[in-house]
Amino acid sequence: MLNKMKPKLDSMKELHEKLLKEINGQSDLDIESISSQKFAEKTKQLHDLSQITDRYSEVEALIRDLQSLQQMLDDPVTAQDNDLREMTLEEIKTTTENVLDMEKQLMLSMLPTDSVDEANVLLEIRAGTGGDEAGLFAADVLRMYERFAEKQRWKWEEISKNYDSLGAIKDATISIAGSNVFGQLKYESGVHRVQRVPATETQGRIHTSTITVAIMPQPTEVQVQIQDSDVRVDVFRASGSGGQKVNTTDSAIRLTHLPTGIVIAIQDERSNQKNRAKAFTILRAKLYEREREKLALERRDSRRKQVGSGTRSEKIRTYNFPQNRVTDHRINKTLHELEGVLNGEALPEFIQALRVEEQTDMLMAMNEEDA
């Protein structure tokens, strides 16, 4: 693959040297005359290119070492010295492994990065088929993500949650903020299925229930601007949540986005303004996600598959309690440590495996494009 990528890598190396001279004032460009924004863009471009060109230089150096070792192996003097020949063969083996490893790192560094990976997210969980059991499993999965967020030192803020007296969740929306939140959680979108014996089952039969998980990056107000004329705002009295608090003032908010028909209703806060702010946060994220899904569909024809683009209708994972098993169907990976997954400790094993699969997919697509 490296031979196919060599022209592109050489051009990147030339651009890197050009930018380095410009920033150091060693070119015809008057660096002091350009705006601070343009200078910052050039500096970032140089940094990004360095991640690639530095590895490329290391690969080239290793290949030169390998060629020198091969010449040494072909030398008559080496052929007559068994110890020297064995030592040379061992060095060739080690250097070859280093070349392959460094080539892989180089290819990965060339993959396009998604700036939205650094975004905070809105986590949305909804009970699906299975009645109360689906709602109870939704509560289990919500706790799984909360524990995982704690381990990552992310900020967890409840936006809205509807549940019943048993603790079964009908739906919940959570804001999660921190480093690389979307980059790690984006693989969790889709249908999660549970197989277990419900506490209310008297004959020990295994029931199957489902919930849906949506992971939406939180855009800024600049990224998604909502026109006042596109939104109808209705104010009403909160009806309570599963027999919980009931407001006696008209503090609940319902937003209807007229162009798309998206409806957001929030009544968790006693303050009208707080409910309004939360509703607009969710609406902005949903509109942003619609645009991202539209772009993903347009690109999908040129890709083998989309590991990290789980839709709400795609069954992605099964949690089987009797067998202590969790299976991710996208990569056929199974862990026999259900408790470890649900307490957030083993979840990174799935996330890392999905990331590797996606990177492999992208490498293959990049290779096909260059072929």
TrEMBL record:
<dbReference type="GO" id="GO:0005829">
    <property type="term" value="C:cytosol"/>
</dbReference>
<keyword id="KW-0488">Methylation</keyword>
<keyword id="KW-0963">Cytoplasm</keyword>
<feature type="domain" description="Peptide chain release factor">
    <location>
        <begin position="71"/>
        <end position="188"/>
    </location>
</feature>
<dbReference type="GO" id="GO:0070126">
    <property type="term" value="P:mitochondrial translational termination"/>
</dbReference>
<comment type="similarity">
    <text>Belongs to the prokaryotic/mitochondrial release factor family.</text>
</comment>
<dbReference type="InterPro" id="IPR000352">
    <property type="entry name" value="Pep_chain_release_fac_I"/>
</dbReference>
<dbReference type="GO" id="GO:0005739">
    <property type="term" value="C:mitochondrion"/>
</dbReference>
<protein>
    <recommendedName>
        <fullName>Peptide chain release factor domain-containing protein</fullName>
    </recommendedName>
</protein>
<dbReference type="InterPro" id="IPR050057">
    <property type="entry name" value="Prokaryotic/Mito_RF"/>
</dbReference>
<dbReference type="GO" id="GO:0016149">
    <property type="term" value="F:translation release factor activity, codon specific"/>
</dbReference>
<dbReference type="InterPro" id="IPR045853">
    <property type="entry name" value="Pep_chain_release_fac_I_sf"/>
</dbReference>
<dbReference type="Pfam" id="PF03462">
    <property type="entry name" value="PCRF"/>
</dbReference>
<dbReference type="Pfam" id="PF00472">
    <property type="entry name" value="RF-1"/>
</dbReference>
<keyword id="KW-0648">Protein biosynthesis</keyword>
<dbReference type="InterPro" id="IPR004373">
    <property type="entry name" value="RF-1"/>
</dbReference>
<dbReference type="InterPro" id="IPR005139">
    <property type="entry name" value="PCRF"/>
</dbReference>
